[in-house]
Amino acid sequence: MNYSKEKHSHNFAIWAAARATQRAFTSTExxxxxxxxxxxxxxxxxxxxxxxxxxxHKKWCNSICKDLKxxxxxxxxxxxxxxxxxCYLKSRLVLKNLESEEAxxxxxxxxxxxxxxxxxxxxxxxxxxxxxKGINWxxxxxxxxxxxxxxxxxxxxxxxxxxxxxxxKPAGNT
Length: 174
Hints:
The protein is an all-alpha fold. It folds into 2 domains: 101 residues; 56 residues, no CATH class. Helices cover 60% and strands 0% of the residues. It has 9 helices and no strands. Helix 1 crosses helix 2, helix 2 packs across helix 4 and helix 4 crosses helix 5. It starts with a helix and ends in an 18-residue tail after the last helix.
């Protein structure tokens, strides 16, 4: 059996991304197939595409949504597909080198914990706090998702994008 470091990394990233996305959604096998079929593996081999990343993200997530809907999985949303993509890329690329170019533009996984903790930041207006508290990541469409990503980019400044996760805690609280 040929089992490489790349295959091992891919398998772990698929599992981690699927587990983070599942939440009464669909099986790991369905998510694995949709992720592998969306074209993201080409990016893993050659990730030097910062200027194209958001368009690639849209292509991947829309492909995942289409594939899952074709399988009869109706709870699929852009937000769920984005979390799958973002967790996968975090495991495969960002965690490999936290100072890489990719670490500056690959989107962080979005969930309720991150959004609720961000809404407690003293540097955010009342209006934005209310907005963040009201976001349900599992229901985000593409437009809403990118509105949120653009806000997070501004909030994060010139730091690697994964640094926004300083507001995310595994246990949920600050």
